[in-house]
Each structure stands twice: as structure tokens, then as C-alpha cells.
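Continuing from the previous page of notes. For each protein in this section, the sequence appears first, followed by its C-alpha cells. Read the first protein now.
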Amino acid sequence: MFAAERRQLILEMVRANGAVSLRELARVVQTSEVTVRRDVRALEAEGLLDRRHGGAVLPGGFTRESGFPQKSHLATAEKTAIADLAANFVEEGEAIVVGAGTTTQELARRLARIPGLTVVTNSLLVAQALAHANRVEVVMTGGTLRGSNYALVGSGAEQSLQGLRVSRAFLSGSGLTAERGLSTSNMLSASVDRALVQAAAEVVVLADHTKLGTDTMFQTVPTDVITRLITDEPPAHDDRAGTELQALADQGVQIAVAGASGSPGGEAVPARRQQRRDVPLPAPRRGQMPGAGAGAGTGLRAAAVLGEQAPGAERARVADMRRR
């Protein structure tokens, strides 16, 4: 295993468990503790984790947030797959909001190919990705620039979103749990994300498996407000992420899992819907009026998604999700 692969796996384990001993890390990556200690030092130098006696822990607990340079190198393949899948949920001529983040930046690059879109964003990176898309209108919020993630925050950003209404919001964050929903480490970013959510009929969260089960300081989107989660397939050893996925599905969040290639489970799906697996809502969302949220303005689309799957195959897929 190459050093970059080892370090990515080490980072994923620490993100999934909060703290991991050097002995356990060495066992999983199948190398010596001396090599693992060297890898942990390198990751600490990048600000991605902290060393503790005999192990590694998340950096700074609830209070610290990795900067854009560090985030942009994390789970890059997973973010690409998630963005590919997320673009399938956007229709021509829609008005949407896209929040700040490295995964949403990847999504924006794909939105440039969808004509007639109006994209409202507080992210300079999202706007940059769409700057040369002739058939996409970009609307930016006001606000104060937050340099660590190139996002506009503060009262100016929040006020510019008042009175806005769009079909859906695509958001990312620092962590996602079934108990608290989506969260982030920065108060100003959380406040703007909440304003983005208020403007949307439904909320789509983009989060790779390393964020599942991670809880950070400021809640942005409660679980019962999340319509759909788009994520990647957790590694076989990551029981925490699998358990969190099941808990989110049990609370009514629709789960769409992106694969690295092909469509998961061998589904026969149209070209624009490849790599998609949905766990449908078992019941109406808590506090949701009939016809609101996931079904608002998208009833035919939702029916088409469910129609792509045979009932027996769907029951087996849900059962497989519960076994995790």
C-alpha cells in the first residue's frame, strides 16, 4: 500500500471513530507502528488530525475546522461520484441554491452543462465554476468573505436570502448524524446555511462517508428537514458509517448511494440516473404537510425514481441496508 493510500485510510478511521490507537491503525493498514507513527505526524502537519500518546484523534474536537486546502484533498474520488449523482437530481430550468464546500464545488462544475438553471450561492468557488456557463444564471448573496472556505457569510448574506424561494438546496457540512443532522464547525457558516435551507422546498445533503457519524459544534439542518442524503458506499470496516446510514433511513431520509463506476446493485436505469440507489421514505416527514418537501413540484420525478426498481429488489435492498 502506498503512503498516500495508507494516510487516507488512517484519516478515514480517525474521522469515523474520533480516536484510534497506533496499534489498531497498524493492524488495519497492515504495516508497522513505526510507519503509522510517521504517517500520523505527516497528517498532523497538514492539520488533518492530532497526535495523542499511543494514537491519533480528531483535530480540536468540536472547535476546529480544516481549511479549504486540506478539505480539497480529502475523499476526492468519493466527492466526484457524489457530485455526478447529485447532478441527476437537477432539472433544466430549475432555480436552486448551492452552499459552500468542496463537494458542492464539484457539483457546480456539472451544473454548468444543464441549461436554464438559476443558481443562488454564497460560495465564490461555486460561482467561479459556473462563471462561463452561458445557459446558467448565477445569483450571489451579499455578505463578508470568509477566506478559509471562500464563502460569503454574515448578516448581509442572510438578508439577501429573505423572500427567496427555490425548488431545492444542495448543502454540505463538517459532519452528519441521525441525532442532530448536518452540522459545521463555524457559527457564521451555520447561520447562512440555515438561511439557505429556509429558501428551499427540499434539502439535499452531500456528504461522503467520512462525515457520517461525525458531530460538530453548530447544527445547520436538523434530520427531519433533510429530504435526501447523497453519499458514497462506506468501506466494509466502517461499521459506524453503515449504522448511521441506517439510522438516517429509519428517520425518513432518502438515501442515494454513489458508486465509483456503474450503477449499484446492477440496476437498469436511464443514462442520466446511473450510479443511483434510493431508499424511499417509509412515511411522511415529521411536521411535513402532504405534498410538501420531497414531493413538492417533483411528484412525477419521485414516482419515476421508485418505478425504476422492482418491489422485490427494493425490499431486498432495504433489508441489506438494515443489516448494516
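Done with the first. The second protein uses the same format. Note its length before scrolling.
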Amino acid sequence: MRWLNIFVVLLGFLPVVGKESIERGIYATFIVRASQSATLSLASSGIVESIFVEVGDKVEKGDRLLQLKTKELYQKLQIAKATMEALEQKYQFITHQYERYQKSQMALDKNTLEKIKTEYYTSGFELKKARANYALQKELLDNATLYAPFSGVIVAKNVEVGEAIGGSPLLGLETFDKKAILEFDSKYFQEVKVGDKFIISLNGEKQEIPLVLNKIYPSINTKSKKAMAEALIMDVEIPSGTFGDGFIVE
């Protein structure tokens, strides 16, 4: 009987699952991720001529980050442009000639008219090919320069000047804005709501400004049996990859 009384007393100190535990806070771990991140590469292959950023540099959307050697590409573009312009003049001349012959076709023999007609259609086909080639060479030249797709900070650099590249990862970029990805016991899935606060602890120290949950993931992780949520990090600077824990409260 004595041991039974001790067990009853100890039982009174155990946390009660339900509304009371929710008021105390639901324990959750978290890892910090950038709101948006990207591994950047180029569609074109070539030799790296210039790199304009280093790890830690802040960039704006549209900033030039890396440049391949473009001398050969530029020459090909100029040749394609000259060819296209020459064929445009030729096509205009043949078009005018064809239109004149059509008006006076009664005075021409059938073979001459067919010859002019063939030249007209052939010239048009050649011009289309020249325009397509010019567009291709221009795209290749444009693709030889890597631009920042969004504003953020450079977090990785996997290439150096002089290296040959061909679709391999070159730079890592992530936004300044961060988010905390939370994992908590799935038995609380129905209790946790968007708008709940998340009081985090970093290196054992409780942070004064709580995060606010802005997203509840709709499914449970089948491996960990954990539910997941997300909170934006607005008023505190925490680097990506930071791991910590805390409590979700209403």
C-alpha cells in the first residue's frame, strides 16, 4: 500500500496530455532555412572568364555574377547578323521582282515564272533559317552570363576563373528572409493552428520575440511520425542551418 501511495503522488506531477499541455506549450524542434534558395548554373558550356562575387556578398536581382569567355560567341553572333541582314535585302529584292512578274505573267513564259517563284520561296526559307540562327547565337551569348534571379546573399562558390564548365553547379544564392521549419508530435496536429506563437530557444537561451506560425503542413512524416509547421523569421537574425527547439503556444 505504501508503494501505491507513492505512485499516486508521483502521478500527480506528470504532465496531462490535452488542453493543459497545450497551454503549457507543445514542444517542437526546428531548423532554419532561407525563404528561397537556388543553386545557379549556366545552360551554355565554356571557360569561366570572370567571377564578380564571393561567398557572403549581397546581390540584387539582375546583378551580373559570372561571365564565360565570349569572344568566339560574339564573332559567331556578328556573322549570323551579317548573314541575316544580307538575306533580308535579297528577299526584299526577289519579293518585289516576283510581285512585278505576277502582274505581267501573261507576257512571260511558264518556265521563267516558275523559276522566279522558286527563287522567291527559297529566299524566304533561307531568311527564316538565318533569323533562327541569329536568335540561337544571341541566346548562346546571353547564356554565357549568369545573373542573380532574386536578391539575396551568395552562400556557395563552386568554380574558379579559368575552369571549364558545362551545366555544373556554380554558385549558391539564398534570400535574406529566413523561415523556421518545425517538427512536433503528430498527436498535436489538430491543436496547432496558423497564428500560434513559437517561443524558440537558441543555445539554451529563450528568445524574447516569439515567431508566428504561418503554415501548417497538411501531412504527417511517415518516417519520423512528426507533424510539420513553418514560421517566418522577421525580427531576429539567424543563419540558415541553425537547429534549435522551443514551444508552440496559443
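What the second structure shows: The first strand starts at residue 26 and ends at 34. The chain is about 35% helix and 30% strand. We return to this in next week's lecture.
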